[in-house]
Design goal:
The protein is mostly helical. Helix 10 (285-296) crosses helix 14 (358-365), helix 15 packs antiparallel against helix 16 and helix 23 (520-530) packs parallel to helix 25. The longest helix has 21 residues, at 596-616. It is flat. 47% of the residues are buried.
Length: 975
């Protein structure tokens, strides 16, 4: 945490200003004020908040292009030039003709030689200095009047000399009618006048505003990261970590991102956006210089105090920082005030003081010599150990930094025990990992620490723990069987969660069970894991053997936490395979646990049962379970269970039709758990399904591949089979019937091998469709009837709806349209009751088409036409525009399409809803043919829409549409 390492040779290059982000509200408000002349705006903010960048943005605004834009800045010089920033701004006033000037303006000739040809002759100087200065002030005002419409921007007003301040006050008291002034100054730092006397009092006729710039929020930090790192998007967890590390201060964010960008050239690309890289990042040079400059300006006691705060590393009370710096009483108060006035330390709430962001602390820490660091860390141990509740983690860190190895190990293990007790899983893992990574530990110590690590690791998911446990099992060959079995059991459980390592994980668990012959309670955990059938192609019958063993050992176990774990997993497993008694058993369980361990198991149960109920189609139950499960898991530190439940939540939103913002949320979830197989696959399923309804078939297939659709042996089978159903429909939509049948063959084979047909509800209707379109009637009949037998008597409402849909597809394919329409209606009612709106609308669409396919349109066809039109509207509301286009295409094919009776709205320069769809598809790189296929339009119609999109957006090319769409804000559409 504190260890200083030599900084490598580096070259820091700044490539100019970045786009202004996170200040849209401020810019809009300022521009509105400045357009109502005369106007004056004062912008204030701490160092690094982007005052100068905001002035630069204002200078380039097109609203002010017709007039003059004059810029100047005050400088922190010991003897500044009189009226320096104003004269600097006026030097460029002669770039266009000036209005009439009286002789008094000639006094500016010596001060503004650039304007000599435009100014009257210089008058004789006055003998009275005050009168002469007044004449100069009048001349400046007259010159500004002659400029006509003008905007003057003055930066760093805190450094203004007294003469400049007087001139600004004079101008503010009688501003020219066409003048607007923006002045920016830094708060929170000393100025020539102690931070007071900012010359900004104006008469009532002047439009005025004071704007205070604060830190950027997480969203703005993310946008800045995307620009500087040249990435299409960055993950929310990384952005939040970046915001925390920089306090959202724009200058600090930019410099940190530039350093990250430089590091990207020396590291694997996957490491560029990791928290570990962010924490190990060197302080950017420009930021280091800024912090060091502030530090060196402080008196010696304040420097000592700042360095003591850097060693403590966390916000602390003044007495604690002062004790470490050997300062008390008035000396401490004076030093603290100096650090605050100098912008080195800040008050962080609750009478605690520290650094605004970790990089500032690191910059100050790096100024401390090695021997002094060791002394300060040793003294910190004494100070903190005497507190009523010693902070064990901090004591461990200080002991390590002071070189006290044995003391560090003692405190680190004690801190990990504390973290485990409090459910702080990540901190416990970090501490145990750090101790086990060191050399010199005895085997007994390694065994004890590794056992703790292996057990707490199951609450979260950290791939680096797998490496640690594998290393220990390989290096320590003489471990007692029970210790080896304990470590191996956790290793196997972690491997099972990892993409592509399911088989190896189960092998390790089986080995562990044999090693734990004298530890039946631990062995029971392994038996319990092998009883769970959701992952891979191992048949249900194999898992049922382990289920029976789990029931046998349950009665022999006394540990209440383990009994609850086994019972909870049995309930969720039974629910997964369609056993309705599982819900009854769940409702009879106690609602609360007696300790952290039992609360973890209850949280796991709620999360796992939410998953099971969602696959069964009990969606309302699942929604309540997942919300409460995530809360419980987070509170108890069951991070793995909470992560899995987030996957369940996005899938619930997908099947329930809650699609607004879902793709972005799902991508963020997947980015947050890149190594956790179940979450990656479940989120990829959702992304694939969303891409499919948008007609983005290549993207859909890419996502579905990540959902393990082509490698069912490595994935959760419900996800795999559902992904196969989506893939089949994607292939059918592109008329790749052979490909759709091949996907159906693979998925049906997986379902048969697994033997849990309730998980095939998303597969069977799609497989039946593929087989019937290929004329493979026996396979179509077989898969539907095998599904019927497999779900008979199961507690799975979605399976019953899917069975009806499958049978209706068979009837429709055989030309039995009236019967098919009736069964499609029944399927739709089943889906609506869940609710699964997309599937329900699809069944209503098919029912209407069946009725329209019975013969020529007659007066009796009106209900079917209305049903199909209603399906199109429902698809539209859901966001399935491609499906809506298909329905309208079918209406046109049947001669039943009628335009809206409400008339067509004129959109002017706004994009119409259809043009907006086309623009979004252009942004995704779709060709005209792909857009036509996706929206069921003719190529000629698409060409017309594309031309209008280019014209309305002012885009120079199709590729320019994506950039302009990123900032396009459509007007509200009347419905």
């Amino acid at each position: 945490m504190w260890l200083a390492t030599p900084r490598p040779t580096s070259v820091s290059v700044r490539a100019g200003s970045t786009a202004l982000v996170g200040r849209d509200v401020e810019v809009s408000a300022i521009v509105k004020i400045l357009l109502r002349r005369p106007a004056a705006v004062l912008i204030e903010g701490e160092q690094g908040m982007g005052r100068s960048r905001l002035l630069e943005e204002l200078a380039g605004r097109r609203e002010f292009a017709a007039g003059r834009v004059l810029t100047g800045a005050c400088q922190p010089m010991r003897e500044p030039f009189p009226f320096g920033p104003v004269l600097e701004a006026l030097r460029s006033a002669g770039d266009r003709p000036l209005g009439p000037l009286s002789p008094v303006a000639g006094v500016l000739r010596p001060l503004l030689p650039e304007l000599a040809e435009s100014l009257p002759p210089q008058p004789e100087p006055l003998t009275d200095p005050c009168a002469e200065r007044h004449r100069q002030f009048r001349a400046v005002r007259e010159l500004l009047i002659a400029c006509g419409p003008a905007l003057i921007l003055i930066d760093d007003l805190q450094w203004a000399d007294e003469g400049t301040r007087d001139l600004m006050r004079f101008l503010a008291a009688g501003m020219p009618a066409e003048l607007a002034v923006v002045a920016a100054y830094r708060t929170g730092s000393p100025s020539r006048h102690g931070g007071s006397g900012i010359p900004f009092r104006t008469p009532p006729n002047v439009q005025t505003a004071r704007v205070t710039l604060g830190p950027l929020d997480v969203e703005a930090v993310g946008k800045l990261a995307e620009e500087l790192l040249d990435l299409p998007r960055v993950s929310t967890p990384f952005t939040a970590k970046l915001r925390e590390s920089t306090a959202g201060i724009p200058f600090v964010v930019e410099e940190t991102l530039r350093a990250l960008r430089d590091a990207a050239g020396r590291l694997p690309i996957g490491e560029v956006l990791s928290d570990r890289l962010l924490e190990s990042l060197e302080v950017p040079i420009s930021l280091r210089e800024a912090i060091t400059e502030r530090l060196e300006a402080l008196p010696e006691p304040a420097i000592r105090l700042a360095r003591a705060a850097a060693v403590l590393a966390v916000p602390s009370e003044p007495s604690v920082i002062g004790e470490l710096a050997c300062l008390t009483g008035d000396a401490l108060r004076s030093a603290l005030l100096s650090t605050l006035d100098g912008g080195v330390l800040g008050e962080l709430g609750g009478d605690h003081y520290g650094f605004r962001h970790p990089l500032a602390r690191k910059a100050v820490y790096d100024t401390i010599s090695g021997p002094e660091r060791t002394l300060l860390h040793s003294r910190a141990i004494q100070v903190l150990a005497d507190q009523p509740v010693p902070p064990l983690t901090l004591l461990a860190n200080h002991s390590r930094a002071a070189g006290r190895t044995e003391q560090w190990r003692h405190y680190a293990e004690a801190a990990s025990d504390e973290a485990i007790a409090h459910g702080d899983t990540s901190r416990a893992i970090d501490l145990l990992q750090s101790v086990l990574a060191e050399t010199g530990l005895g085997e007994d110590d390694i065994a004890r620490l590794a056992t703790k690590l292996s057990q707490v690791a199951l609450r979260g998911f950290r791939p680096d723990v797998i490496e640690t446990l594998e290393r220990i099992l390989e290096e320590l060959t003489d471990l007692r069987p029970s210790v080896r079995g304990t470590i191996r059991l956790s290793l196997g459980m972690l491997l099972v969660r990892t993409i592509g390592r399911l088989g190896r994980g189960r092998v390790e668990v089986e080995k562990a069970i044999t090693e734990l012959v004298d530890e039946p309670e631990l062995a029971a955990r392994g038996i319990n894991l092998l009883a769970q059938p959701i992952d891979g192609l191992t048949p249900l019958s194999w898992h049922e053997v382990w289920m029976e063993r789990a029931r046998e050992v349950f009665d022999l176990i006394e540990d209440p936490e383990l009994r609850l774990a086994l019972l909870g997993d049995r309930i969720s497993t039974q629910a997964h395979i369609g056993d309705g008694s599982a819900w009854t058993e769940f409702t009879e369980l106690p609602d609360q646990g007696s300790g952290v361990a039992e609360r973890v198991q209850l949280a796991r149960l709620w999360c796992n049962l939410a998953d099971a109920q969602s696959w069964a189609g009990h969606l309302t139950r699942a929604e309540k379970l997942v919300t409460e499960g995530i809360r419980r898991a987070t509170d108890a530190g069951a991070l793995y269970a909470a992560g899995l439940a987030q996957g369940t939540r996005v899938r619930l939103d997908w099947v329930r039709g809650n699609w607004a913002g879902l793709a972005e949320a799902t991508e963020q979830l997947r980015d947050g758990y890149p190594d956790l197989g179940p979450i990656v696959m479940e989120s990829s399923l959702v992304l694939g399904g969303l891409a499919a309804v948008r007609g983005e078939f290549a993207a859909a297939q890419r996502h579905l591949t990540a959902a393990s659709v082509h490698a069912p042996e490595h994935g959760p089978i419900p996800v795999v089979l559902s992904a196969a159903g989506v893939l089949i429909r994607v292939l059918l939509a592109t008329d790749d019937v052979d490909g759709a049948c091949a996907a159906a063959d693979n998925a049906v084979s997986a379902a048969r091998r697994k033997g849990v047909w309730v998980w095939a509800a998303g597969l069977v209707p799609a497989a039946a469709e593929a087989y019937t379109r290929a004329g493979r009637w026996s396979e179509a009949d077989a898969v539907v009837e095998e599904f019927a037998r497999g779900v008979d008597g199961k507690d799975s409402p979605v399976s019953q709806a899917a069975l009806l849909a499958g049978r209706a597809i068979l009837l429709d394919a055989r030309g039995k349209h009236p019967a098919a329409a009736t069964v499609f209606d029944e399927a739709a009612a089943g889906y609506e009751a869940l609710p699964m709106p997309y599937q329900a609308i699809g069944a209503r669409e098919r029912a209407a088409l069946c009725r329209l396919n019975t013969g020529r349109l007659t007066a009796g066809s009106r209900p079917a036409i209305e049903e199909l039109a209603a399906a199109a509207e429902s698809y539209e509301r859901l966001g399935a525009t491609r499906d809506a286009g298909r329905c309208r295409h079918q209406l046109r094919e049947h001669g039943a399409w009628a335009p809206s009776q409400r008339g067509r709205r004129g959109y002017g320069q706004e994009l119409s809803p259809r043009e907006l769809e086309v623009a979004r598809m252009l942004s995704d790189g779709r060709t005209n043919r792909e857009i036509a296929d996706g929206l069921f339009l003719s190529p000629r119609t698409v060409e017309q829409h594309v031309a209008k999109v280019l014209r309305k957006l002012g885009a120079r090319s199709r590729t320019d549409v994506a950039r302009r769409m990123s900032t396009y804000a459509p007007a509200a559409i009347d419905r």
